[in-house]
Amino acid sequence: MNNFPVVLLTIVITVLGIAIDGYNCKMVQFIFGDSLSDVGNNKYLSKSLAQASLPWYGIDFGNGLPNGRFSNGRTVADIIGDSMGLPRPPAFLDPSLTEDIIMENGVNYASGGGGILNETGSYFIQRLSLYKQIELFRGTKELIKSRVGPEEAEKFFQGARYVVALGSNDFINNYLMPVYSDSWTYNDESFITYLTETLEAQLKLLHSLGARQLMVFGLGPMGCIPLQRVLSSSGDCQDRANKLAHSFNQASTKILQDLSAKLPNASYRFGDAYDVVDDVISNPYKYGFNNSDAPCCSFYNIRPALTCIPASSLCGDRSKYVFWDEYHPSDKANELIANELIKKFGFTRAGQPNNAPSPAPAHAIAPSPDQEDY
Ligand SMILES: *[C@@H]1O[C@H](CO)[C@@H](O)[C@H](O)[C@H]1NC(C)=O
Ligand SMILES: *[C@@H]1O[C@H](CO)[C@@H](O)[C@H](O)[C@H]1NC(C)=O
Ligand SMILES: *[C@@H]1O[C@H](CO)[C@@H](O)[C@H](O)[C@H]1NC(C)=O
């Protein structure tokens, strides 16, 4: 019973803490993205064709079962959030999500197949585009507001960290695919303008909803993903797709600089890992990889394999492959990308001093989305 007084003291301090400060808001993240950041939303979009719900997705994560991530392991956002000491936000569509969980961990709205543009990825039938994700975030904010009051809610949302990581699908599953009307409505230049102006409007909208500390992850050399290479007879990277990614990154850098200067109290930053990934693809051995052009998970010699399934065969050493499947980097490559972004953003570890429990009881707020809308 020796530590009884210590326990009592801790309780007294905790209770006082609540009485004095009201809610001690934890720093959390809100993540908006596509399959590169999805942690399970698409699992709940039953008609979506963009799924990571079968083995061998997740084989190097936790218990090794599929968890909704489109990789064998962690996403770039997982790794960056970990390095900042922030909790990993759960998927918005996870039915066990509660207000308490949101206030402790934030929310991840990322959805495989989603894009900056509403029309992107329609081929996947269901996905959450960025506008939809922001609409869902607005709902989350209303919910927290009704729980803790407008002032505390504003503090909580302004103190949070925001990640926006979309854009590849706007090219790979829209502009570069002749089945989409954007591919014949625009040229390279006018499409980049349309896309980045849409992104700018969305970032302003997020600011109006409280986002102050926000980072946008740019695009890598998407013309070098295995799916793009297999489309060319030579197996080389698709130059046009790479140039588009580069132009998108340049235009976005400028937009983020302008927004950061213009929007009150905003620190909006853009970072991409284009150059380092480009170098990894040309010189995999230099970085400890052994393959930078084929997916680790593949259906024997049938390419493109499109997705990784239980009947697929895996490469011998997953940490030696840059790509996990036709579209997505492996855990090891994500680590390299994350480290490059951390360097560019110049992060230091965020403190988590306040851990006061929320006094009100939790009640589930499992969203029951009208799935036809996605
Ligand atoms: C995009 O979709 C959102 C709903 O998710 C809608 O509110 C918005 O008007 C749409 N924008 C365009 C340009 O179609
Ligand atoms: C900017 O920050 C100051 C100081 O924290 C605050 O008083 C003000 O309301 C903020 N403005 C906006 C638009 O967030
Ligand atoms: C790399 O791949 C080559 C052939 O693809 C193989 O002979 C070699 O053993 C591999 N090295 C490692 C370290 O996996």
Protein described:
With 374 residues, the chain is α/β, with parallel strands linked by helices. The protein has one domain (28-281, 331-344): 3-Layer(aba) Sandwich (Rossmann fold), CATH 3.40.50. The protein contains twelve helices and nine strands. The chain has helices at residues 4-21, 76-83, 99-105, 130-148, 150-159, 168-175, 182-185, 188-208, 226-231, 239-262, 274-282, 331-345; strands at residues 29-33, 106-108, 161-165, 213-217, 267-271, 291-295, 297-298, 313-314, 321-323. The strands form three sheets. It has a five-stranded parallel sheet, with helices on both faces. The protein has a two-stranded parallel ribbon with strand order 6-9. A two-stranded antiparallel sheet has the order 7-8. Helix 8 packs parallel to helix 10 (239-262). The N and C termini lie far apart (57 Å). The structure holds 2-acetamido-2-deoxy-beta-D-glucopyranose (3 copies). One 2-acetamido-2-deoxy-beta-D-glucopyranose is lined by residues 264-265.
